Fold this protein.
Amino acid sequence: MQTYVDTLCREIELRAEEVWPKPHKVRTVYFGGGTPTLLSVSQLGQIVEQLHRSFCLSETEEWTIEANPECLTKEYVADLRSLGAFNRVSVGVQSFADADLHTLNRRHSGEDAVRAVANLKERGYRNVSIDLIYGIPGQSAEQWTSNLDTAAKLDVQHLSCYALTVEPGTILEQQIKSGRVRMPDEDEELARYKTLLDWCGSNGFTQYEISNFCREPYRSRHNSRYWDHTPYMGFGASAHSFDGSHRRWNIADTTQYINGINNNNTYFEMEKISEIDAFNEYIMTALRTTEGIDISKLDPVFADGLKDNILKYIMEGYIYIQNGHYRPTEKGLLHADGIAADLIIA
């Protein structure tokens, strides 16, 4: 792990001159892509120090770190707080019900999750986000609502809520194929999502993306910049970067990543994004947000074509126009991916 951290810091140092545009002001920093809290706080501090040496972070607004509940002991949270870097923590709770967590093969318990959030609050972390999953086999409507109510009692400021996706090769996939486990059907999933929307409306949470909800002003500033096509740099194995016209991704294999950087070998791939691909990507991400599509960001030729194609969705109540944006209605958000697929240029 220490070798990986040393290599990661080396990549940050090597790439410090790539910033776009210059002078570049880093607005957000996000430690994610897995479970960064498996690292010691001193290792996290080493990375933080390298970032400060390589970039101007005087105007950085948000430092987020992802964590699993079992990592967030009282001692670890205290040390993390003393680091003085992170002002936002995103906790992979998934569920507060032990039965759900067993189905998901998670290492923590519901009690661990409650304790983790409490430890963060005790140390003064106000901006706490948690991930929750609905559509888990065996999860009742009452249990889903109970998960949401527990989040409210813990006074979290942000929720990321996702329908369960069954990954290939997992134990859960095998159980489903064998008939031992039944996945909820589409109507059940939609009912859980509508319960979520109603609950958020009654508990002071604002929806700003299909899966993301917050008490204002605690939107994820970092993730919001992915959705509006702001350039970003990613460091570490499998990390992605985007400069506005090129997309770059590091090799996923950790050993090859380490060897590539330390031996001055290629450790990433890159592609130039065509104007059509850039338009399509923007449409796909923007329609998942309540802000929608900023018409001023579009090439006039693409804007004219979109205007003709989007009209039927405006007429049918899926999209509305406001302040120079094509914004999805609540019904539109439910069908955002399908609408986007129809609007992109093949």
